[in-house]
Amino acid sequence: MENSQQYNSFSLVRFLWKWRKWLLIICGVTFVLSAVCSCFIKPKFKSTATIYAPRTNSTAKILLNEQNYNERLDIKAYAIEAETEQMMQLLDAQEIKDSLIAKYNLAEAYGIDTKAKGWKTRLNKTLMGNMTIKRTDYGAIDISVADWDAQRACNMTMDILRYIDTLKNRVERERSLAAYRILQHQVDSVDGEIQRCEDSLRVCMEHGVFDFEYQSERLMQQYAIAVAQGNTAALNRLKSEQEILAEWGPKVVILRELIENFSKYQSMCRQKMMDARVDMENEIPVKFVVNSPQVADKKFYPKRSLVVLVSTFCVLVISVFVLLMIEKIEEKPSVKAEESVE
Q: Looking at 95-104, 135-144, 185-194, 283-292, which range is the least confident one?
């Protein structure tokens, strides 16, 4: 087995030595051609920004929190995995891509015919090929844009940072507005309930019932005095008042409890309305910018040395394979000729 391997290795070396001139010529020509052709490849420049996502963007929770300290509600707190993934999903929103396409007329910049079928798909694929959004090892997000124009690449990266603020604030404002309207409806409903309770309480008061507990206590004291004095007229009057108090008194107690509970619920709704209004009317940045994009002064693509080396190596491998096939084809007639002679 070792002899066979040594023989095969020696055969390969012998084969390469045999065709060394041709291989050197092919590699030399490929090297020169690839070097020349790489000069005609339009260079691309890349701009990169690095950001962190915050834990929360609720202005009301951050600024109006009266609870104990909560790291999540700290305006300086960086995001954890969930918030970072959500931010990356927002960065990949089609709305941001459409804004870039419209602002920089990327269809013309990328040489895409807008009259051709499926041009929007090709345009989006080209833009996505030039955009890179990835998470770093430290939980940050790298946003990169490559373009043939270094200034445009930088401007597009900066616009992405602005658009993410606009997009997320708009989404959260819409939710805050919906919450505000729901709470407003609840407050209006509770106002109606309180008004009905107060109207009913006013009817009870018209019958002389104001404070059930106090009036009951005073009535019992007067009744006891009338019984002790044997005052029949006073007893009849007190019995009439007791009947009125017995009929309307429990209603007064229930109505007062309802008004108190409705008032507490209304106060809570109004407080949440104020929080929703703060979120709705105020905006804060939705990211921490660690590295701002800069205009690149060095091309990102192509790497000419890499193009030359890869091209030369690939051509060398193909040439060796073709030469091996040529030798195999040439060996077959000679083998047949030897067999016929025997």
A: 283-292
Domain with 29, as residue range(s), is 1-41+302-342
Instruction: Please give the span between the terminal C-alpha atoms of the chain, in angstroms, as a whole number.
Output: 30
- Whether 269 and 309 map to the same domain: the answer is no
55 in a domain, yes or no? no
Contact predicate 89/150, CB 8 Å:
no
| Co-location of 203 and 274 in the same domain | yes
Q: Is 90:168 a contact under the CB 8 Å cutoff?
A: yes
Q: How far apart are CA 62 and CA 282, in angstroms?
A: 12
Total structural domains within the chain: 2
The reply to whether 238 and 315 lie within a common domain is no
Q: Kindly report the pTM of this predicted structure.
A: 0.61
Same-domain status, 275 and 195:
yes
CA distances to 61, 63, 75, 171 from 175, in Å: 15, 19, 20, 7
Residues contacting residue 205 through CB under 8 Å, at least 6 positions apart = 252
Residue type, 35: A
Each residue's pLDDT tens digit, 46-84? 899 998 887 665 555 555 555 544 444 444 555 567 778
